[in-house]
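Researcher: Let's try something more involved. This one mixes different molecule types, so please make sure each is placed in the same coordinate frame as the others.
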Amino acid sequence: MQVLHHIGKYLILVWIVLQRPENASIYRRQIINEMDKLGLNSLGIVAIVSVFMGAVVTIQTAFNTDHPMLPIYAVGFATRQSIILEFSPTVISLILAGKVGSQIASEIGTMRVTEQIDALEIMGVNAAGYLILPKVIAAMIINPVLIIISMFLGIFGGYLACFITGVEPLSNFLYGILFEFSQFDVLYAIIKTVVFAFIITTVSGYFGFYTKGGALEVGRSSTTAVVVSSIFIIIFNLILTQILLV
Amino acid sequence: MIRTENIYKSFHDTPVLKDVSLVFKKGQTNLIIGQSGSGKTVLMKCLVGLLNADAGNIFYDDRNFSAMRFRQRKVIRKELGMLFQGSALFDSMTVEENIMFPLDMFTTMTRKEKQKRAQFCLDRVNLHNVEHLLPAELSGGMKKRVAIARAISNKPKYLFCDEPNSGLDPPTAILIDKLISEITRELNITTVVNTHDMNSVMEIGDFVAYIYKGQLWWTGDRHTILHTSNAELNSFVYATELMRTIKSEDH
Ligand SMILES: Nc1ncnc2c1ncn2[C@@H]1O[C@H](COP(=O)(O)OP(=O)(O)OP(=O)(O)O)[C@@H](O)[C@H]1O
Ligand SMILES: [Mg+2]
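Model: All components are placed in one shared frame. Result:
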């Protein structure tokens, strides 16, 4: 019952958020701001996680596929596929759900409990649209960029791992990375990322927007936002994989 | 003018407002007074549409606000200014951006014109050299004044203030009260102020409505309020030693 109530309320909020903005130029300015706030600010963590995870994936694959029957491209190929298909779009989106999601929910939640949202509504502004839509659009534009960067850095991490530890000859690794490369895989990753960006921003926006009470509840909203958007990402990952790859 | 007709509002079966019918006239400062928890904030939120009354109608100059849908209400919303109990300034924006916000949203003014208007509003509330500060860098009284400046920046026809001087020292409180009353006369607008401060009542109460446990108990002005025979109102008015002393000296 409770869950259905939330889903209904969430869908109504999404509908309100997607209404035509009252002043396009303000929204445009907000989108640029949010791209900076949500995107550029996450670049550091995305880069660090990607390089290290790429390295670990490569080393793991190399250790676990150390068999003379396996082709020389096995390690590079497996690393590339895991990074492009799952690691970059899904794991990085989960990390962004933690960082960006809690940021959005606490920012909007604070505005709710300090009556700033009431102040917007009094003025006749569509508060949900004004606060949430620029974040949704910004994340849907900037997250794919982050994910592409993450793919490059992940593979670079793998390369570094081979270079430093020598678990796999560099030439084999590079051969594997380029082996039967399919652009569709990248498109698949971007589609997933865009859907995840929508989930992160709208779900966190929802929990922030309907915060009740005070500072304590703002903290709670932001935790709930992260948990729920992560669960939605996992579920939609399964659904999208089914739809797009089968 | 704002008129309410038989407003009812309850939360989870607990009645908070019972049959409130009032008329707030234009060009004067209308006060809603009452004890803490009597329903003043709820009444004001019903007036501006932040809460929906369970029953009753609210008219803005004969436009029935209660019967309007979201889109129609927008027209009236643009004519409202409101000062919230906690100021509610946008804390990611500077003072100037806060005041310019309604203009950014709803007017086609150029940046220069908007800045000029913001400067005018800041001058009006006696604030200088604060336009580039963030709300977090202001004192409580300054925040209130910036919030007033923001409320009047888009030239509202109706101004609402929820406890404009709570938490302020007496001279600053009176300053804010006077400011609201002066602006009301200057712009010839309809102003509604919630307060539980007798100083405010005596200073600016052109019209006073006393709410007691969610019901409209008494109406009058700052002169008649001192000579009423209404027991509940008397206990509110003469709750402080100061007011009792004044009364006894009067006799
Ligand atoms: N959102 C709400 N949900 C449930 N009850 C509420 C809600 N808002 C207000 N109330 C109840 O309505 C009553 C009136 O509250 P209100 O805030 O209007 O008082 P007030 O007159 O403004 O008091 P104060 O002078 O302390 O600000 C209180 O008993 C309060 O508990
Ligand atoms: Mg109140």
